[in-house]
Amino acid sequence: MKQRVHLVSLGCPKNRVDSEVMVGSLMEGGYEFVDAADDADVIVVNTCSFIQPATEESIETVLDMAKFKTEGKCKKLVVTGCMVQRYGTSLEGELPEVDHFLGTGEYHRIRDVLDARDSATPKSFVDVPMYIHDEMAPRVNSWSQCSAYLKISEGCNHKCAFCIIPQLRGVLRSRTIESLVTEATALAMQGVVELNLVSQDSTAYGKDLGTKTGLGDLLRALAKVDGIQWIRLHYAYPIGIPDGLLEALRDEPKVVPYLDMPLQHASGPMLKAMRRGVKRAGQERILERIHQAVPDVSMRTTFIVGFPGETDEDFAELCDFVRDQEFDHVGVFTYYQEDGTPAALLPDQVDEDVKVARQAEIMRIQAEISRKKLHAHVGTVLPVLIEGTAEESELLLRGRTWFQAPDVDGQVYINMAPEDVEIGQIRAVRITEAGDYDLVGEVVGTLSA
Prior knowledge:
The protein is of the alpha/beta class. 33% of the residues lie in helices and 22% in strands.
């Protein structure tokens, strides 16, 4: 009889890809996956530990799942991911309910751990992260039938003062172009038409393999994959943007002119304290270079407010920067004093209520910018990837246009859709309404089937 597995994946898209690799490995090994935890013989929790609230959510989830060992059918509970990598074997005493712990570089061991039938199997597998899956990993895409994340590299070589990711994910490790093209081809054969490229530092892709043109070459190679229609790049570090990336954004029809580039701040003192290696003027030169090379580029960025020592003047400069640049999409995080990072030891920690107020002010400024940009599309026709029925109403379809990344950038809601509209199609949609972050439109033609 097949063992039934329930998997909970927490955190970022990179972590989700790891979960999908574990699902594929277990399915290949004869395991069956179930949606309900109380139906499972085995429960796997892939954790996040980027900041303390994420760790707390991970612990709460593990404890919730542990209840099924006494109240349900579950016989084994396995915890994987960043929280395990961060706290190591100390979790054995803190979470005795858990049978096995796997760090971020050990998720490929999941089938061996579950297949083991003797008590000699170690309880914890935690080491310096070195593993990254390749095209041979039997991954199962769980995000969407028409869209998938493609992890192009793992780890990060930067030393930002606020970030613990290098400790959790290790140094930069890029996959080969051949490996990524093979995986992209397999995803396309499953019906995926959109690839969202993710990593900890996409700008650095290929540098560890001895190439300075890796990212541009990768994008052009992926653009040749039959069935793939859109390719979007996330998490590009601002320093060292290669010419090949900008050329691919400009010239390759399948590479959408969209760039997700976290900047974190604009004030010189803040950028220095964050160890970002660039000042506001440098960021402005980088952005000008991008816009000159790719005039129609859609830019997403993220900022941190309330970093230690952030003054009213620093925050005012950030607000001014957001107004000047008019980014298409902005995310704002309040700084969290994270143990194990250099920033946690800095003086002049900012009060929580000040952080929240500053976050709200940046988002108010951005909402005005976003509203203006989206209203400019009313009356135009945009290509929209059809993703399914809107959660708000079964009478509406939902989709995204090229400047909207999944889960973070808003959607296009579609009414008056013809009967031949199917999930995975990219259809011509006339925009009839616009809000602060979403668009509304009607299908007026076919761009792809």
